[in-house]
Design brief:
Distance between the termini: 51 Å
Helix content: 55-70%
Subcellular location: Cell membrane
Low-confidence stretches: 6-11, 360-368
Largest sheet: 3 strands, mixed
Protein name: Serine incorporator 5
Radius of gyration: 25 Å
Shape: flat
Structural class: mainly alpha
Organism: Catharus ustulatus (Russet-backed thrush)
Membrane topology: Multi-pass membrane protein
Family: Belongs to the TDE1 family.
Number of strands: 5
Strand content: under 5%
Length: 462
C-alpha cells in the first residue's frame, strides 16, 4: 500500500475526501457512488448485528466457546447471561440508534443542491467519525430509561415506518412499469423493432403470471380445505385480469395512449409473486389423517423437506431478503425516483429508447469533470456542478428501511417468539402484510389508469 493511498484513506475517514479502494486495477468510481456505498455498508453492518442478536444459535455458541462469558456479561451490566443484548428488545434499541442516525442526516441535508457546501462535505466524508457516531447512538439506546414504555411506543413508530417503506417501493414499481412502457413506445415511433420487443416482453410477463397462478393452484390447494388459499388465489388472479382489461379499455386509451399491457403485465407478475410469498408465510394448516396423525396441508410437499434444514434456509433466505431491501434503498434514492414521487416525469419528446433504460447513471454530463488519483482506485468527482441525487431523500429512505428491517427481523407483531432461525416460519401478521401490499399495489396502478377519467380537468403525467 503506497503512502499516497494511506494518506487518501486517512482523508476519507477523517476528512472530506471520497472513499476508494487501494487497488489500482479496480475500475474508477464516482464520488456519488462511493458515498452511497459507504452508507449502505453501515446499513449492512447494523443489519447483520440485528440478525446475530436474534439468533439463539449464536448466543449458545458464545456461551460455550467464550471464556468467562458470565463474568463479562456482568461486567458490562448486560445481565447474568447477556440477555439484554439479545432478543427483540435489543434489536429495537440498535435499530432506534440507526434510524436516528439516518433521520438526523435527513434533517441535516435538506435542500442541499451544491456539493461545495459545508453540509455536503460532511455528507460525503468523515466516515470514521460517522461510524463512531452511529455506534454511539446504537449503544446509547440501551440506556434509555423506562424501557417498557419506549419499546411499546417505538414498535408503533417502526410499524408506521415499515408500512411507509413498503408504500414507497410499490409507488416506484408502478412508476417503473409506466416508465418502461413510455420509453419503449417512444422508440417504436422510429423503429418497428421496439414494437416487437414490447409484444415479446408482454407475452413473457403474462406467461410467467399465468404459470405462477396455475402452479399455486396445484401446490397450495386441495379438494378439501385450504379455503383461504383458494379464495386469495382466485381474487388476486381476478384482479390481474381486471386491471389488464381496464388498461386496454377505450376510455382509458383515449386519455392515456401510452397505457398498455406491458404495465399490467409487470403488475400481474408482482401480484403473483406477493401472493406466492404470502401463501408461503401463512401458518401451516394441519388435519388428522386416517391414522389420527397430524399432517400439514395446503403447502407443497417438497417445501416440508426444505424446512428441515432450518439453518440453510434461514441463511440463504435472509441474505436474499436483505439484499433486496438494500437494492430497493439504492434504486429508490436516485434523482429520477425522488422526482417520480413528486409527480415529475420526463416528457415523451425527451425520451430516448434503451433496453436498459432504468440503468442510466445520474450526472453523466459531469462525470469526467474532475478525476483524482491517489495511488489506488481512481475517483471521479461527478458533483462539481451540482448534486446528482437528493441527499435528504436518500437518508429518509434509509431511515424507513431501518424501521422496516427492525420489524421484519422481529416478525412484526409476533416479536416475543421471534428468532432468526425461525425467520421463515409462517405468521399471520406477515401473511396479511404481504396480502395487503398486493392489493395496495393493484389499487395504485388502477388509480393511475382511472385518475384522468375521474378528474378530467387536471393534468396527469405517467
Amino acid at each position: 500500500m503506497s503512502a499516497r493511498c494511506c494518506a487518501g484513506q486517512l482523508a476519507c475517514c477523517c476528512g472530506t475526501a471520497a472513499c476508494s479502494l487501494c487497488c489500482k486495477c479496480c475500475p474508477k468510481i464516482k464520488q456519488s457512488t462511493s458515498t452511497r456505498f459507504m452508507y449502505a455498508l453501515y446499513f449492512i453492518l447494523v443489519t447483520i448485528i440485528c440478525c446475530v442478536m436474534m439468533s439463539t444459535t449464536v448466543a449458545n455458541e458464545m456461551k460455550t466457546h467464550i471464556p468467562f462469558y458470565k463474568q463479562m456479561c456482568k461486567g458490562i451490566q448486560a445481565g447474568e447471561m447477556c440477555e439484554k443484548l439479545v432478543g427483540y428488545s435489543a434489536v429495537y434499541k440498535v435499530c432506534f440508534g440507526m434510524a436516528c442516525f439516518f433521520f438526523l442526516f435527513f434533517l441535516f441535508t435538506i435542500k442541499i443542491n451544491n456539493s461545495k457546501s459545508c453540509r455536503a462535505y460532511i455528507h460525503n466524508g468523515f466516515w470514521l467519525i460517522k461510524l463512531i457516531v452511529l455506534a454511539a447512538m446504537c449503544s446509547g439506546a440501551f440506556f434509555i430509561p423506562d424501557q417498557d414504555t419506549f419499546l411499546n411506543a417505538w414498535r408503533y413508530v417502526g410499524a408506521t415506518g415499515g408500512f411507509l417503506f413498503i408504500a414507497i417501493q410499490l409507488i416506484l414499481l408502478v412508476e417503473f412499469a409506466h416508465k418502461w412502457n413510455k420509453n419503449w413506445t417512444a422508440g417504436a415511433n422510429h423503429k418497428q423493432m421496439w414494437n416487437g420487443l414490447l409484444a415479446l416482453v408482454t407475452l413473457i410477463l403474462y406467461s410467467i403470471a399465468v404459470a405462477a397462478l396455475v402452479l399455486m393452484a396445484l401446490f397450495y390447494t386441495r379438494s378439501e380445505g385450504c379455503m383461504y388459499n383458494k379464495v386469495l388465489i382466485g381474487v388476486n388472479g381476478g384482479l390481474c385480469l381486471f386491471v389488464s382489461l381496464v388498461a386496454i379499455s377505450p376510455c382509458v386509451q383515449n386519455r392515456q395512449p401510452h397505457s398498455g399491457l406491458l404495465q399490467s403485465g409487470v403488475i400481474s407478475c408482482y401480484v403473483m409473486y406477493l401472493t406466492f410469498s404470502a401463501l408461503s408465510s401463512k401458518p401451516p394448516e394441519t388435519i388428522l389423517d386416517e391414522n389420527n396423525r397430524n399432517i400439514t396441508i395446503c403447502v407443497p410437499e417438497f417445501s416440508q423437506g426444505l424446512h428441515r434444514d432450518e439453518n440453510l434456509v434461514t441463511g440463504l433466505g435472509t441474505t436474499i431478503l436483505f439484499g433486496c431491501i438494500l437494492y430497493s434503498c439504492l434504486t429508490s434514492t436516485t434523482r429520477a425516483s425522488s422526482e417520480a414521487l413528486k409527480g415529475i416525469y420526463a416528457t415523451a419528446e425527451t425520451e430516448v429508447a434503451r433496453c436498459c433504460f432504468c440503468c442510466v447513471p445520474d450526472g453523466d454530463a459531469d462525470a469526467e469533470e474532475h478525476v483524482e488519483k491517489r495511488g489506488g482506485q481512481t475517483v471521479v468527482y461527478d458533483e462539481k456542478k451540482g448534486t446528482v441525487y437528493s441527499y435528504a431523500y436518500f437518508h429518509f429512505v434509509f431511515f424507513l428501511a431501518s424501521l422496516y428491517v427492525m420489524m421484519t427481523v422481529t416478525h412484526w407483531f409476533h416479536y416475543e417468539s421471534a428468532q432468526i432461525e425461525k425467520f421463515f416460519t409462517g405468521t399471520w401478521s406477515i401473511f396479511w402484510i404481504k396480502m395487503v401490499s398486493c392489493w395496495v399495489c393493484v389499487c395504485l396502478y388502477l388509480w393511475t389508469l382511472i385518475a384522468p377519467l375521474c378528474c378530467p380537468t387536471r393534468e396527469f403525467s405517467v
